[in-house]
Design a protein that fits this description.
- By secondary structure, this protein is mainly alpha-helical.
- The chain contains 6 helices and 2 strands; from the N terminus they run αββααααα.
Protein backbone atom coordinates (compact mmCIF):
# COMPACT_ATOMS: atom_id res chain seq x y z
CA UNK A 1 0.00 0.00 0.00
CA UNK A 2 2.81 2.40 0.94
CA UNK A 3 4.58 1.98 -2.38
CA UNK A 4 1.39 2.28 -4.41
CA UNK A 5 0.17 5.49 -2.76
CA UNK A 6 3.61 7.12 -2.99
CA UNK A 7 3.47 6.90 -6.80
CA UNK A 8 0.34 9.07 -6.99
CA UNK A 9 0.72 12.79 -7.80
CA UNK A 10 0.83 15.12 -4.81
CA UNK A 11 1.84 12.45 -2.28
CA UNK A 12 3.54 14.15 0.70
CA UNK A 13 3.88 11.28 3.14
CA UNK A 14 2.07 8.89 5.42
CA UNK A 15 2.14 7.70 9.00
CA UNK A 16 1.04 4.50 10.67
CA UNK A 17 -0.05 4.64 14.31
CA UNK A 18 -0.10 1.57 16.54
CA UNK A 19 -3.06 0.80 18.81
CA UNK A 20 -2.88 2.42 22.26
CA UNK A 21 -3.84 0.10 25.12
CA UNK A 22 -7.08 1.18 26.75
CA UNK A 23 -7.63 4.05 24.32
CA UNK A 24 -7.66 2.85 20.73
CA UNK A 25 -7.78 -0.75 19.51
CA UNK A 26 -7.11 -0.09 15.83
CA UNK A 27 -4.07 0.72 13.76
CA UNK A 28 -4.50 4.09 12.04
CA UNK A 29 -2.95 5.12 8.73
CA UNK A 30 -2.75 8.77 7.69
CA UNK A 31 -2.04 9.89 4.12
CA UNK A 32 -0.99 13.41 3.19
CA UNK A 33 -1.39 14.85 -0.30
CA UNK A 34 -0.89 18.34 -1.73
CA UNK A 35 -4.55 18.80 -2.63
CA UNK A 36 -7.86 17.10 -2.00
CA UNK A 37 -7.99 16.29 -5.72
CA UNK A 38 -4.69 14.40 -5.40
CA UNK A 39 -6.02 12.53 -2.37
CA UNK A 40 -9.30 11.74 -4.15
CA UNK A 41 -7.34 10.36 -7.12
CA UNK A 42 -5.64 7.88 -4.76
CA UNK A 43 -8.81 7.08 -2.78
CA UNK A 44 -10.83 6.35 -5.91
CA UNK A 45 -8.09 4.51 -7.82
CA UNK A 46 -8.49 0.97 -9.12
CA UNK A 47 -5.08 0.13 -7.64
CA UNK A 48 -6.24 1.07 -4.12
CA UNK A 49 -9.52 -0.84 -4.51
CA UNK A 50 -7.57 -3.95 -5.49
CA UNK A 51 -5.16 -3.62 -2.56
CA UNK A 52 -8.07 -3.21 -0.13
CA UNK A 53 -9.81 -6.25 -1.61
CA UNK A 54 -6.60 -8.24 -1.16
CA UNK A 55 -6.34 -6.97 2.43
CA UNK A 56 -9.79 -8.36 3.33
CA UNK A 57 -8.24 -11.84 3.26
CA UNK A 58 -6.15 -11.01 6.33
CA UNK A 59 -8.51 -9.12 8.62
CA UNK A 60 -11.60 -6.95 8.79
CA UNK A 61 -10.91 -3.23 8.70
CA UNK A 62 -12.78 0.07 8.58
CA UNK A 63 -12.05 2.98 6.29
CA UNK A 64 -12.72 6.61 7.17
CA UNK A 65 -11.43 10.00 6.14
CA UNK A 66 -10.61 13.20 7.97
CA UNK A 67 -10.61 16.14 5.58
CA UNK A 68 -8.36 18.42 7.61
CA UNK A 69 -5.77 18.20 10.31
CA UNK A 70 -7.87 19.39 13.24
CA UNK A 71 -10.69 16.86 12.87
CA UNK A 72 -13.80 17.65 14.87
CA UNK A 73 -12.53 21.06 16.06
CA UNK A 74 -14.02 22.51 12.88
CA UNK A 75 -17.21 20.45 12.52
CA UNK A 76 -20.28 22.63 12.04
CA UNK A 77 -23.87 21.52 12.58
CA UNK A 78 -25.45 23.84 10.03
CA UNK A 79 -25.49 23.91 6.23
CA UNK A 80 -21.85 24.98 6.06
CA UNK A 81 -20.83 21.37 6.84
CA UNK A 82 -21.15 20.65 3.11
CA UNK A 83 -18.56 23.34 2.33
CA UNK A 84 -14.90 22.42 1.94
CA UNK A 85 -12.82 22.53 5.12
CA UNK A 86 -11.16 25.83 6.05
CA UNK A 87 -7.67 26.51 4.73
CA UNK A 88 -4.60 25.71 6.83
CA UNK A 89 -4.06 29.43 7.43
CA UNK A 90 -7.58 29.86 8.77
CA UNK A 91 -7.44 26.76 10.97
CA UNK A 92 -4.08 27.83 12.37
CA UNK A 93 -5.41 31.28 13.27
CA UNK A 94 -8.58 29.82 14.80
CA UNK A 95 -6.59 27.30 16.87
CA UNK A 96 -4.38 30.13 18.13
CA UNK A 97 -7.50 32.15 19.07
CA UNK A 98 -8.62 29.23 21.26
CA UNK A 99 -5.27 27.93 22.44
CA UNK A 100 -3.49 31.08 23.59
CA UNK A 101 -6.10 32.30 26.10
CA UNK A 102 -6.62 28.74 27.34
CA UNK A 103 -2.90 28.21 28.01
CA UNK A 104 -2.53 31.63 29.66
CA UNK A 105 -5.51 31.07 31.97
CA UNK A 106 -4.34 27.56 32.88
CA UNK A 107 -0.82 28.82 33.59
CA UNK A 108 -2.20 31.51 35.89
CA UNK A 109 -4.51 29.02 37.60
CA UNK A 110 -1.79 26.40 38.15
CA UNK A 111 1.08 28.73 39.09
CA UNK A 112 0.11 29.04 42.80
CA UNK A 113 0.56 25.26 43.12
CA UNK A 114 4.33 25.65 42.47
CA UNK A 115 4.67 22.28 40.76
CA UNK A 116 7.92 21.13 39.17
CA UNK A 117 8.16 22.35 35.58
CA UNK A 118 7.61 18.90 34.05
CA UNK A 119 4.51 18.22 36.16
CA UNK A 120 3.01 21.65 35.52
CA UNK A 121 3.52 21.20 31.77
CA UNK A 122 2.04 17.71 31.84
CA UNK A 123 -1.08 18.79 33.74
CA UNK A 124 -1.37 21.98 31.68
CA UNK A 125 -1.19 20.04 28.41
CA UNK A 126 -3.78 17.50 29.51
CA UNK A 127 -6.17 20.20 30.73
CA UNK A 128 -5.62 22.46 27.71
CA UNK A 129 -6.32 19.57 25.30
CA UNK A 130 -9.59 18.84 27.06
CA UNK A 131 -10.60 22.51 27.31
CA UNK A 132 -9.72 23.24 23.68
CA UNK A 133 -11.65 20.22 22.37
CA UNK A 134 -14.77 20.48 24.51
CA UNK A 135 -15.06 24.15 25.51
CA UNK A 136 -12.95 26.66 23.57
CA UNK A 137 -13.38 25.44 20.00
CA UNK A 138 -17.09 24.52 20.06
CA UNK A 139 -18.31 27.46 22.20
CA UNK A 140 -15.82 30.35 21.90
CA UNK A 141 -13.97 29.98 18.60
CA UNK A 142 -16.27 28.39 16.01
CA UNK A 143 -19.39 30.50 16.72
CA UNK A 144 -17.78 33.92 16.16
CA UNK A 145 -15.41 32.73 13.41
CA UNK A 146 -17.84 30.36 11.66
CA UNK A 147 -18.74 32.72 8.80
CA UNK A 148 -15.07 33.38 8.15
CA UNK A 149 -13.97 29.73 8.45
CA UNK A 150 -16.72 28.41 6.18
CA UNK A 151 -18.40 31.29 4.37
CA UNK A 152 -21.79 30.73 2.74
CA UNK A 153 -21.70 30.02 -0.99
CA UNK A 154 -23.16 33.42 -1.83
CA UNK A 155 -20.52 35.37 0.15
CA UNK A 156 -18.15 37.51 -1.82
CA UNK A 157 -14.97 35.43 -1.94
CA UNK A 158 -12.53 38.32 -1.50
CA UNK A 159 -14.25 39.68 1.60
CA UNK A 160 -14.96 36.31 3.26
CA UNK A 161 -11.64 34.62 2.56
CA UNK A 162 -9.05 37.21 3.46
CA UNK A 163 -6.57 34.68 4.83
CA UNK A 164 -6.81 32.06 2.04
Amino acid sequence: MRLAKSRFPGFRGSELFRPVDGIQDEWTAIYRYDTSADLDAWLSSAERRQLLADGKKFRDFKIGTVDHSFGSWFAFDDARSEAPPPSEAKTSIAVWVGLYPTVVLLTLALSPLRMPLWLGMLIGNVLSSILISFVAMPYYVNPPLGQWLRPPDDARRRRANIAD
